[in-house]
Design goal:
Elements (H helix, E strand, L loop, with lengths): L3 E9 L2 H25 L8 E6 L3 E4 L12 H6 L3 E4 L6 E4 L3 E7 L9 H18 L5 E3 L2 E6 L7 E11 L2 E9 L19 E2 L2 H5 L6 H16 L2 E4 L2 H6 L1
Parallel strand pairs: 1-2, 1-12, 3-4, 9-11
Antiparallel strand pairs: 2-6, 3-5, 6-10, 7-8, 8-9, 9-10
Helix pairs in contact: 3-5
Length: about 240
Amino acid sequence: MNKQVKFLDLGMKDYKEVWDFQESLFSGILDVKIKNRREERNDDTPNYLLFTQHPHVYTLGKSGDIENLLLNEKQLESKGATFYKINRGGDITYHGPGQVVGYPILDLENFFTDIHKYLRFLEEVIIKVMADYGLNGVRSEGETGVWLDVGTPFARKICAMGVRASRWVTMHGFAFNVNADLGYFDNIIPCGIKDKAVTSLNVELRVDKVDEEEIKKKILKYFVELFEAEIVNAEAEQLLKV
């Protein structure tokens, strides 16, 4: 089992560009697995973790309802936002500046073959990061992601998650609101859930801005701890040659 994870921070990138990049890495892992099966080989499958931020964009999962997007095409344009229907689970969500977005593209056969455990581990990474700032991040039964004050009228989501998996290979991931412009969430019914609000780490800490680089380091630390992984820094060109 290969627990080495090639890590790349892409910075601010267009959503579609990163989606295509994810797809190429995802397909590459599947190709190795298929070849191993057909030719009775035992080649290691690679794993990747991408960090990024996107310009304002709304994405709708394959089980989502377009009615949860409250803007028409012209209104999207006026807000400088784009929209994509994509192949992850979940409903509608927003990505934009001030989020730390993570896309683990893993062969779970290198770790464990349990998609629910995988999602719980991703949630636990964010919960541990929040605890470092004195915040009690929690899960909400039946709803993926990380929340605060679940079970009260003040329940609010701080990290959205949605993944795709095939042959135990994952893509898509999480969007952690660190310094997010929460006004953009007013244009959707986030994740199709009408009775819960959305928040951001800077709002909860009552500061203008949280150090996003520090957040990324903490996410990596807890990702390594939970997945018992080894992180290796990589370049985009190197990844595409794999």
